Amino acid sequence: MACNEPGVAVYRYRTVFISDLHLGSPDCQASYLLSFLDTVEAERIYLVGDVIDLIAMQRRVYLPESHLAVIRRLVTLAAEGRQVIYVPGNHDEFMRSFCGQSLAGIEMRLADWHTTADGRHFRVCHGDEFDHAVRCSPLLWLVGNPMHGVLVRLNRWLNHWRRARGKGYWSLAAYIKQRLARARAYIARFEQAALTAAGRQKADGTICGHIHSAGFHRGREGLYCNDGDWTEHCTALVEDSGGRLSLLHWSEEPRVLAYEPGPEHAPEPAVGSGVAANRVA
Q: Which of 60, 82, 94, 189 suits 41 as a labelling partner, its CA being 20 to 30 A distant?
């Protein structure tokens, strides 16, 4: 689906943040990701780590046409004048050796500072650097254990079954994480580690990925933003022309998951509401 085709809706943003694509792994939801890249226009696109799953590819090289199409689309966006910034993560750590360079027009950076349209400064990083701050307790099996791989495979098989029966995408992983107290506690510790780092760096907040759990959390140190992933949840963090941040879920029916919290903003929409964007057709 090309964004220039007549009658195709285009969602326009100032900045888009996506992470944990895991291209090269069977778990990557490449069809949804390509639909997103073909439908959303942005001046700047951040790839916030684990873009290519080099760890998975050490076990088995898996690069179907849909994954190659995503890579070609990103290169094309850079060639068309979009600023594409790649901040590697722990699954594509090898790419950190290229930071400071440009690959096919894509800027490689170890981390970055993003200034929103309303003048706030956010540090952009993958988030694996915060792992040490939560290792004082056993790592959550849903996040750091091989059992997480089992859950992702179950998620993939379940959605193959659902699609065969004409049903929409549904995340088993998200359902379990929302109901497991240990998962919520782990995520809370991770959020606080990111906010503590933002406070030390005099930032307005942190934008990251890594733990496959999209969300916002406002603390005394600033605003924590996690853009989620494209293996279990198909989510992106987006900034509009006024600097407002929101989270999108992108599957058969794209929708807003949440707006950034704050007294200056309207209440969060109910899950399932329409995408709030500068939309044209």
A: 94
| Residue 154 in domain | yes
Q: Render pLDDT for 213-271 as a digit per residue (tens, 0 to 9).
A: 899 999 999 999 999 999 988 999 999 999 999 999 998 678 899 999 975 544 444 33
> Which amino acid is present at 17?
F
Domain count for the chain, please give it.
Answer: 1
Phi, psi of 223 (to 5 degrees): -115, 125
Residue 252 near residue 31, CB atoms below 8 Å: no
**Residue 153: which domain range?**
10-280
Q: Examine residue 4 and state whether it is found in any structural domain, yes or no.
A: no
Look up the pTM and report it.
0.82
